[in-house]
Design brief:
CATH topology of the largest domain: Nucleotidyltransferase, domain 5
Order of helices and strands: EEEHHHEHEHHHHEEHHH
Shape: globular
CATH class of the largest domain: Alpha Beta
CATH superfamily of the largest domain: Ribonuclease H-like superfamily/Ribonuclease H
Structural class: alpha/beta
Number of helices: 11
Strand content: 5-15%
Number of strands: 7
Length: 260
């Protein structure tokens, strides 16, 4: 099924030095950019992470330190990467929880702001888990009828994610609750909750009020914590190991609440 797009959709996947959004680095980024007229553009970037890749990560993606020694750093290519996503909606597999927060963190380190409000996000894994509850390799077999060619290659993962998304639309076209071929719908459907920040540390509750989604204040509103319950919590968060996007969000909320 051809995707119904109003603007380009970037379907991407990354490989990294690990799973810590604030400390690990992107070493490979591959994307398929799909245009409203159906044209597709693909590319893969590799980066020198300026740190040693742990063996447990190499065992997953098979990208070695030797492979990357002559590659540019992410910062050196950051403006090129930012232009890929500019004016586009974004899709990936588990991207809302890992790929997008790590991308935002890397761009921030390079001095480039990533504004989530300018994009719609489709997480193909969330759609899959809501419907079938398995991983990308199983999704490829289930929806597309064949195994993945090279699991944990960023390029193949990105291409497979796009193939699965199209197949999901076909598979559920006649369901009691069909998937709608529309980016706004798919973005909302593939979101587990209403994140305020990319990492989901702050979410909207049922009253659409920002609340903490972690730690000792989980479920409490950000406003009551910052202004009544724990006046030093904002300072603690700013000094702690949170993603830059999370710090930007709480700063915006902190200033907003202080003005009241």
């Amino acid at each position: 099924m051809k995707l119904n797009l109003k603007r380009p959709l970037v379907v991407f996947d990354i490989e990294s030095t690990g799973l810590n959004i604030t400390e690990d680095r992107i070493i490979e980024l591959s994307y398929v950019k799909v245009y409203p007229d159906g044209r597709e553009e693909t590319n893969t970037y590799r980066f020198n992470p300026e740190k040693v890749i742990p063996q447990q990560a190499i065992d997953v993606h098979h990208i070695t330190n030797e492979d990357l020694k002559d590659e540019p750093t992410f910062k050196e290519r950051a403006h090129d990467i930012a232009r890929v996503f500019e004016g586009c909606d974004i899709a990936g597999f588990n991207s809302n929880h890992f790929d997008i927060p790590l991308l935002a963190q890397e761009l921030s380190k390079a001095g480039i702001s990533f504004d989530p409000s300018q994009h719609k996000f489709i997480d193909v894994q969330t759609i899959y888990h809501k419907r079938e509850k398995r991983d990308l390799e199983a999704a490829c077999i289930f929806y597309c009828g064949h195994p993945m060619d090279n699991h944990h290659s960023a390029a193949d993962d990105a291409k497979t994610t796009l193939e699965v998304l199209k197949a999901q639309l076909d598979h559920y076209a006649d369901a009691d609750e069909p998937l709608v071929n529309d980016v706004d719908y798919l973005s909302q459907y593939s979101s587990h909750n209403r994140n305020v920040d990319l990492a989901g540390r702050i979410i909207y509750n049922e009253q659409k009020v920002p609340v903490f989604n972690f730690g000792k204040h989980k479920g409490k509103t950000v406003e009551e914590v910052f202004t009544k319950l724990d006046l030093g919590y904002y300072d603690w968060m700013m000094k702690s190991d949170f993603a830059e996007n999370t710090k930007q969000v709480i700063t915006r909320l902190y200033i907003q609440f202080k003005k009241r």
